[in-house]
Automatic annotation (TrEMBL):
Taxonomic lineage of the native organism: Bacteria, Bacillati, Actinomycetota, Actinomycetes, Mycobacteriales
Catalytic activity, as annotated: (R)-malate + NAD(+) = pyruvate + CO2 + NADH
Alphabetized SMART domains for the sequence: Iso_dh
SUPFAM superfamilies in UniProt: Isocitrate/Isopropylmalate dehydrogenase-like (SSF53659)
Cross-referenced NCBIfam families: TTC
Protein name: D-malate dehydrogenase (decarboxylating)
Signal peptide: none
Alphabetic keyword roster: Manganese, Metal-binding, NAD, Oxidoreductase
Pfam families on file: Iso_dh (PF00180)
Organism: Nocardia mangyaensis
Chain ranges of the Isopropylmalate dehydrogenase-like domain: 5-343
Family: Belongs to the isocitrate and isopropylmalate dehydrogenases family.
The protein's Enzyme Commission number: 1.1.1.83
Cofactor: Mn(2+); Mg(2+)
Length: 351
């Protein structure tokens, strides 16, 4: 049996609660994981002046994977928590793919009530290292009437090519359908460039059926005709917005997992829920742990532990379909730990 060293960064708010449940479930399907917890968080920032120590990436580099809760909490500005931990780790470890599967799970009440699990099974491939999330820019003439702000986007040839190629590979493995999110009518430099790279790479994949849609129309398509979509590739900002939308459509942020993948496997990949630290329900013990548990399933699958990953995935589906243990966001009275324990027990039967 292989053993793994996995780092956890529970972070802030409900990140702490949902990570505990994911650890509980993974321990039931794959014995022999050695967990190391790092208390990097906004609390840590208020104590030490930094979200993580300067050698944070070095401390994590030797792990097989990282399970991240959520970072960000009232009292620390969001740009500090994001740029002090999440974004530097994604970049230090070359996690240029942000993989966000969106599925309608059984037994959950969706905004698309009449759709079934067959109609909505989308994989969002989000560029995770450049694009609109850049540090280039600044505020000019602050405090004066002619004050203005510039925020630049960065689209590199390497960055566009590798994420688009990754998406074509995933589309080839799945249904053979790929849709690219663009906005070439508004962003007249970056998006026509993105589109041209997409069209160039499409030639290498004649079997993949492609579409390019403006991101606003694509947002509507996710709600109106999710069955026409399979793999979606988008820039950093577009992928981020589309995946929150898609997650909400399937029944809430408490169900949507995400992986920050380094496809070259020369540094650890990092798995997390799409949601944040949910300060409005932090400390109540009622956060839905499913998103983080499914992030754990993605982590197992990334390590090549497909049997364990499938057991977790099926356990989530079975428990949700049974409908007896539900957290308040799913309309029930269960706690985070109740739902985590139920999924862990079912996963152990299946593993
Ligand atoms: P959020 O995702 O934390 O919460 C949005 C809404 O969804 C809230 O009403 C919350 O109660 C609900 N929600 C989220 N997860 C839930 C769960 N598992 N179960 C039940 N309900 C759930 O987003 P928000 O409020 O915009 O951000 C809060 C903080 O989290 C901010 O500081 C933000 O920067 C940070 N954040 C961190 C992320 C990360 O670490 N990757 C991602 C998104 C936000
Ligand atoms: Mg987001």
């Amino acid at each position: 049996m292989r053993t793994y060293r996995i780092a956890t960064i529970p972070g802030d708010g409900i990140g702490v609660d949902v990570t505990a449940e994911a650890v509980k479930v993974l321990d039931r399907v794959l014995p022999g994981i050695s967990w190391t917890e790092f208390d990097w968080s906004c609390e840590n920032y208020l104590r030490t002046g930094a979200m993580m120590p300067p050698d944070g990436p070095e401390q994590l580099a030797g792990f097989d994977a990282i399970l991240l809760g959520a970072v960000g909490f009232p009292g620390v500005p969001d740009h500090i928590s994001l740029w002090g931990l999440l974004i530097p780790l994604r970049r230090a470890f070359g996690q240029y793919v942000n993989l966000r599967p969106v599925r309608l799970l059984p037994g959950t009440e969706s905004a698309l009530r009449d759709r079934t699990a067959d109609d909505l099974d989308i994989l969002i491939v989000r560029e995770n290292s450049e694009g609109e999330y850049s540090e280039i820019g600044g505020i000019h003439n602050p405090g004066r009437p002619d004050e203005f702000v510039l925020q630049e986007s960065v689209f590199t040839r390497t960055g566009c090519e590798r994420i688009i190629r990754y998406a074509f590979d995933r589309a080839t493995e799945r249904s053979g359908k790929l849709c690219s999110a663009t906005k070439s009518n508004g962003l007249i430099h970056s998006m026509p460039y993105w589109d041209s790279v997409f069209e160039r790479i499409a030639v290498e994949y004649p079997s993949v059926q492609t579409r390019q849609m403006h991101v606003d129309a694509l947002a509507a398509e996710i709600v109106l005709h999710p069955d026409r979509l399979d793999v979606i590739v988008g820039s950093n900002l577009f992928g981020d917005i589309l995946s929150d939308l898609a997650a909400a459509v399937t029944g809430g942020l408490g169900l949507a997992p995400s992986g920050n993948i380094n496809p070259d496997a020369d540094a650890p990949s990092m798995f997390e829920a799409v949601h944040g630290s949910a300060p409005d329900i932090a400390g109540l013990g009622i956060a839905n742990p499913v998103a983080q548990i499914l992030a754990g399933a993605m982590l197992l699958s990334h390590l090549g532990e497909d049997t364990a990953a499938t057991a977790v995935d099926r356990a989530v589906r079975d428990v949700l379909a049974a409908g007896t243990v539900r957290t308040p966001d799913l309309g029930g009275p269960a706690t985070t730990a109740d739902l985590g324990t139920a999924i862990a027990a079912r996963a152990a039967e299946l593993a």
